[in-house]
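Ticket #4471: structure export looks truncated?
Reporter: QA, pipeline team
Priority: medium

Steps to reproduce: submit the single chain below to the structure queue and open the exported record.
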Amino acid sequence: MSFKYNKITIAGMGFMGGSLGIEIHKRKLARVIKGYSGDIDRLKIAQHKGAITDYTTDIEDAVKYSDIVFICQNVLSIPAKYKQMYKYIESKTAVTDIGSVKGYIVDSIRNTDRHRLFVGSHPMVGSEKRGIENIRQHLYEGGVCIITPDKYTDPKKAAVIKDFWTTIGMETIELAPNVHDSYVAGISHLPHLLAFALTNSQKNIIKNYKNVIGPGFKDTTRIAASGEEIWSEIFMANSKELIKKTDEYLKEVRRFRSAVDKKQKAKIVSMIKNSRVLREALNK
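Actual output as written to the record:
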């Protein structure tokens, strides 16, 4: 059988890394899909589920001879992991990540990345589910992946990474790292912050009267079930942009609050209508 890649390495065997491995395996894209983690039990589960063909806890064995290395770990640990593996990576290898923040990562690895192997990636897919136990095929298919090259990025490596995401069925767009971080702060990071805050604000009802809670609240707060370690690091790594978007949101909340307090129906109707029109545009 002819494979597009000889070896792909996935460093990190959580929900995202495992689901990526399944997609690669099912499409028969790589002869070897090497899983790397410090948790041997997690690696065994990943292999049993068909996410990887082989695994190791040795970092040199993980990345040696690999065509592409994916770092699928929490945001704050990605630069450190790249620095650990860098001396073992061959110049032919392209390295990327799936982190939700790009400026912090790119800035942190620039001095290490002398051979310009790294290209930032952010597949805009996911779930409130977490862990290797919940991995699934088709998570990435049909989604959008933001690739974030900058002036230091090797165009050939960027082309390799773009081609991979396209091959597994994703649409790709390119944004500068700082532009990416500004956009996702509003459309991804802020919604998670709001879901966490909204859920916490109604803890008494949730604890004592949850039988009265309908689908509206459950739909709105679905992502509040997301992992605290992952999202605390995302918030810290993109704090500047997240604070800007939070302030924009609070300004809008105050407009609503004022109109409700003054019982200004026409203004309330107008604001709700504007929101409805914008939301409906997402489905067109």
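Status: closed, not a bug. The export was complete when the record was re-opened. Leaving a note from the reviewer for reference: The chain has two domains: 5-175, 180-281.
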